[in-house]
Protein: Phosphohydrolase
Organism: Deinococcus koreensis
Amino acid sequence: MQGGAVQDVEGRHSELPATGEHGKRVVEFTTPRAKLIEEASLAIRADLAEFPKALAAYEALRSDPEALAHWDMSNYITMRKLGYNDHGRVHSFITGAASLAITELLLDAGVKPDLMESGVGDADDVYLTVILGTMLHDIGNQIHRVGHEAHGVTLALPILDRIMGPLYPDVFKRTKVRSFILGSINSHDLNPPPLTLEAGITAVADGTDITKGRGRKAFSLGSVDIHSISALAVDEVVIEKGRTMPVLINVTMNNSGGIFQVEEVLAPKVIRTPMRRYVELRATTRPEGDEQILSRVRLEGDHFVMDLEDGERVQVEVKDSQKKAQQAVVENLGIGGQRS
């Protein structure tokens, strides 16, 4: 993606395990919960093997009883009370693995995240920031879905201080690094939009968790809506090196209904974050899937270009409902254009 434009990448790649070929991750949600967490954990450890602080922080987080309780209660509220997709342990581990894959591709391409650009820290600090911020991003849901970003910041503080204390004896530096983590948690759902590349990585990694396994549990619990149904139409999400940009996110659907997930969940998190300049996004349907309404979708700027089966090409604006809602509030309050 360059300036928000996504280009096609030739060819497809066979599925690899989470710890497979450098620069490539396949996110497939069709196996039992414990196995998903185990596979994601293996991928995370492999990515952090050369970064001692980040690895130590991850090991502390994955077994932290407070974090484990936060993930479980967040899942209880979102799935049992709201009928949403998974927002608990599986989601945190899967998005954690995705965030490290994205980070690795960016650093390999010579991109400097804000933590490095500002002089606060090095690559080890970046990986620590990304894994902690991403894995803790949704814990605020246990209080309420409304305002869960800010709730998450409050709930994460004691965990971060407990984990980071032994790793950063210098309080001055620890506080600075922590600010990047809190920013990632606070802006992962684009409300407000992320300002740092680290926060953008967390948001995009969160957006990649759109495959069928995540929707299957909500569907089985009786949540039959566009979110759960469209999630069942997404077979896999592959994160790999792009041809023109550092990161390619390739979404494979078994039915074109999965485009809802791409448009409503993933695309806005690419468009409205600092990741916009570094990501290519592509969605395709499997030829053997259900009736083919469309064969290919490309994100170009703020619009989707859809190639229909009859050869027609349609261009539509991405429906960023959160952004429109925020704009409506500003207009109704009559404060547009004023800044303090």
